[in-house]
Specification:
The N and C termini lie far apart (about 85 Å). It is elongated, with a radius of gyration of 22 Å. Helix 7 packs parallel to helix 9 and helix 10 runs parallel beside helix 11. With about 375 residues, the chain is an alpha/beta fold. The protein is about 35% helix and about 20% strand. It has an 11-stranded mixed β-sheet, sandwiched between helices.
Length: about 375
């Protein structure tokens, strides 16, 4: 008999499931708390559930996490897990500890169909979407593992970034219930400001997310004009920059933060010149998008034909943006020693998924250096 994986359900879905079992909604809430807040997978442990319900669950339901293939811990505290999602595919989640927060980077697809030129995942192709339960399972496992590992009773993960493998908005039907579970006070209780979806610019889904489940948003921009972005991010040919920025403005009406984060991978001689910085400034001023820029050092891989911008050029680029009044960050890598930095992947991922380096998966594994806008002051009269 096929059983339902309870990680596939947000609270509304679980309530509907319980209703089919002849149970009232409050039982679904109790069950939801046991699964997500306490990390329970054994129904016999759920002692405040009626015995009759536990017996029903034993034959109709399960709580099934993803098998862990490997785990690596960095000297800086970063932890990376490789999860088996079947048929030779695997995805990674990365935990990044900070003094004031704990961030988990989560994957939404096995592979990616967007095909960004600087991203090895895109070069390797697309396998399949993850299900809601497979997305949530990364958080479920990491949160409850970390509580035991760090010997803490309180919540460890305060931030989730959908910046792992895949384009989240191309897996919309699975993404939204997963986000709702992350946000639900009966589950992980994360703030909308602390859950971020990263997208390469799927304009119609940006609008849908704004209506259905607005959370913080990061957009993979990487170029200041359509000609260059068409080459770097092929999705731009369908949804050019002007359409994307207008979608960002519409999203900000609903968003929990008052800015969009623009991710910008610094590529030597391609998008890192002074004129590119000036074009970016003009671009956001023309469209009136409240934003901050996150400059990402590129980790090269052979198929890309691209190189990393020299650090002095990256810092000069950041200075130009910040002096124009745009808050700008330059990422400092984390987890280098376990291949958990931007663009790095362990060898066993390559063996199992045929994806060498997944730069898109690493956008949140790095601590930013924040360059605040320079405040202009009027000259004093003498």
């Amino acid at each position: 008999m096929t059983t339902a994986n309870l990680l596939d359900f947000d609270l509304e879905g679980l309530a509907a499931f319980c209703e089919k079992l002849g149970e009232k909604r409050f039982r679904a809430t109790q069950l939801f708390r046991w699964v997500h807040q306490r990390g329970a997978s054994d129904f016999t442990q759920m002692t405040d559930l009626a015995k009759s319900l536990r017996e029903k669950l034993a034959t109709t339901a399960r709580v099934e996490a993803l098998p862990v293939l490997t785990q690596h811990e960095s000297k800086d505290g970063t932890i990376k897990w490789l999860f088996d999602v079947g048929d030779g595919n695997a995805v990674e989640a990365v935990f990044i500890p900070e003094d004031d927060r704990g961030t988990l980077c989560v994957s939404s697809q096995a592979g990616c169909a967007v095909g960004c030129r600087f991203c090895s995942t895109g070069h390797q192709g697309f396998s399949r979407n993850l299900g809601t339960g497979e997305i949530v399972a990364q958080l479920w496992f990491a949160e409850h593992f970390l509580r035991k590992h760090l010997k803490r009773d309180e919540r460890v993960i305060s931030n989730v970034v959908m910046m792992g493998m895949g384009e989240p908005l191309q897996n919309y039907s699975a993404l939204v219930p997963a986000l709702r579970t992350m946000l639900d006070d009966n589950a992980y209780g994360l703030s909308r400001r602390r859950v971020t979806v990263s997208t390469s610019g799927v304009v119609p889904m940006i609008d849908r997310l704004g209506a259905d489940c607005p959370v913080a948003m990061a957009v993979s921009l990487h170029a200041p004009n359509d000609a260059l972005r068409d080459d770097l991010v092929p999705l731009n040919r369908k949804y050019p920059i002007a359409e994307l920025l207008e979608a960002c403005k519409r999203y900000l009406v609903h968003a929990p933060r008052d800015f969009i984060t623009f991710e910008y991978c610094m590529l030597d001689g391609v998008n890192d010149q002074p004129e590119h910085a000036k074009q970016l400034i003009e671009l956001v001023r023309t469209h009136g998008v409240s934003c901050k820029f996150n400059l990402i050092p590129f980790n090269p891989f052979p198929a890309s034909g691209l190189l990393r911008s020299p650090q002095p050029r990256v810092l000069e680029f950041a200075k130009t943006l910040s002096e124009a009044g745009l808050v700008t960050t330059v990422r400092k890598t984390r987890g280098d020693d376990i291949d958990a930095a931007c663009g790095q992947l362990a060898g066993d991922v390559k063996d199992r998924t045929r994806a060498a380096e997944r730069m898109a998966q690493r956008r949140a594994t790095e601590r930013p250096i924040v360059l605040h806008p320079v405040q202009k002051t009027a000259p004093q009269e003498h």
